Amino acid sequence: MADGSANIKEIILKGIPASHGIAIGAAYIFIKDNPIVEERTVGEADILSEIDRLNRAIEKSSKELNKILVFAQEKIGEAKAKILEAQMMVLEDQVLMNSIRKRIHSEKKNVEFIVSDEIGKYCALMLKAQDEYMHERAHDMEDLKNRIIRNLRQERLVSRLEGSVIIVAHTLTPVDTMILSRNHVLGYATDRGGITSHAALFSRALKIPAIVGLGDVSRQIISGDTLILDGYSGTLIVRPTEIHIEEFKKKQERMHKFEKELEPLKDLPAETKDGHRIELSANIELIDELDYVVVQGSQGVGLYRTESLLIDRDDFPSEEEQYIEYKKFAERIYPHRVIMRTFDVGGDKISAAVAEESNPFLGWRGIRVGLDRPELLMDQIRAMLRASTKKNIAIMFPMIATLAEVRKAKEYIRKAKAELRAQGVKFHDKIPIGVMIEVPSAALVVSQIAAEVDFISVGSNDLTQYLLAVDRGNTLVSKLYREFDPSVIITLKHIINGGHRQGVWVGICGEMAGHPLAVPLLVGLGMNELSVVPAILPEVKKIIRSLNYSDAREMATKALTLSTSDEIEKLALKFFRKHFPDIPMSDD
Ligand code: PEP
Ligand code: MG
């Protein structure tokens, strides 16, 4: 072992795979310089020089950020680099900076203290919010605060690293990810962060393997420890045995070869060997991911989670703001289509509730919020309709529990259309309308619902949690969260039959659609569309193109007779090994 730590035991950790690839190398613990700031009183005579110091630190920070921005634009493109502009905007926010200047005058305190306190207040507020995205933004603000303080102290930024390393950190901001990538970074591993964090998005754009959400990994590792980082399965092995190093080197080669093989599939349809066509599309949270989706060979976007527009703000975007965003989206994905889901707030996502809910997953969530606040729903529907002139937008409602909700939601579409018509505004009159089936009550009456919509998309993440009564985010019960449970598979079949009976197509946009083992089963059950995270799309296409629809149907019929999730998973695994011996399973 490279670090001579052969006597220390190997540790295997599981996190969230954020960017594909395998890295093997030495760890570098990246500790954010969290400056200790003293509170000092300054004399009247020194106030002007304190303000002068602040102005110079702001100027220096602005220059640094500009440099990073230019570097990011070159490396990952303008659209993605935009994320970094948020810090610039805070730096240029005159209200904030003037309030810092005023406080130096009135409180007669040193500038480091006032900067730390004033910006720190915003960070604390953001950290209080329930959603992960706000937490990410709080870290960005903190990053900016530390940058200003470092420049006030005229300290130099340490960003040069020796050799090739795997960066291990508590959290990484987009700026950190960008600056560190100027070195030879093999991978990123962080305690915090989700798959949709901007740092994760950047590592995907930079093609650097990454795992996020590893718990307290940064405290279990020291710089120099050998690591294996598997960005396919989210496995991080600390101080691995020689056997593991060899095994992962082989996997690295295997996956590399496999990914090369997938490239030519990009422009081919997702069609089985016996000619059964599946619509294969991508799930998107941010418009920035669009380029990547196209590169991955997607036929469109099966789920655009519009909630991302609510991030970083405490109000809802106006109709006009939304229109601009949706129009841009539709134009960029054209000629493919995008299914835009109305805001799915509540649950573990951005909360719309005024008071805290004791059981948010069963609370004010998704369409329930829209129907109680029709002015918000109308703004969003009108914006989507106005953006639909290229006829490649479909509207989808989340968290539908009853047919009555579908009818009410559709009534708002009719109303919005009538208003736009009266104003002479153009839109796609036959815009497809669909619903997510993710609440068991809706699944049971799916046939009646299907009779009144154009398509159905199964939200298997929620459907599984509500069917099995297992909170999808609660690690205490995560072993009970089983997508292969017979109750889930039988419900999927019921939904597909119900949809088809009414002549509407049925898709699935939960994580299950991108699970390699589940793909043949879903196709065999009769799913018409699979919408998956972009990173997995080429692999799913390969599986579909290697599959015989008749074999998949036979397997699905058998699965419906089995009585435990273990049995169904075993059947799916056996099928996979038998029919696709050449496809490496990325989460092996
Ligand atoms: C789902 O529930 O499966 C789904 C796709 O929606 P979300 O994960 O956004 O709740
Ligand atoms: Mg859902």
Task: Give a description of the structure.
The chain is α/β, with parallel strands linked by helices and 588 residues long. The chain folds into three domains: 11-32 and 158-260, 3-Layer(bba) Sandwich (Glucose Oxidase, domain 1); 44-152, Enzyme I, Chain A, domain 2 (Orthogonal Bundle); 277-579, TIM Barrel (Alpha-Beta Barrel), CATH 3.20.20.60. The protein contains 23 helices and 16 strands. The strands form two sheets. It has an eight-stranded mixed sheet with strand order 1-8-7-3-4-5-6-2. Strand 10 (300-305), helix 12 (319-333) and strand 11 (337-341) form a beta-alpha-beta unit. Helix 1 packs antiparallel against helix 3 (85-91) and helix 1 (47-76) packs across helix 6 (132-152). The longest helix is centred in the N-terminal third of the chain and has 30 residues, at 47-76. Residues 1-6 have low confidence and may be disordered.
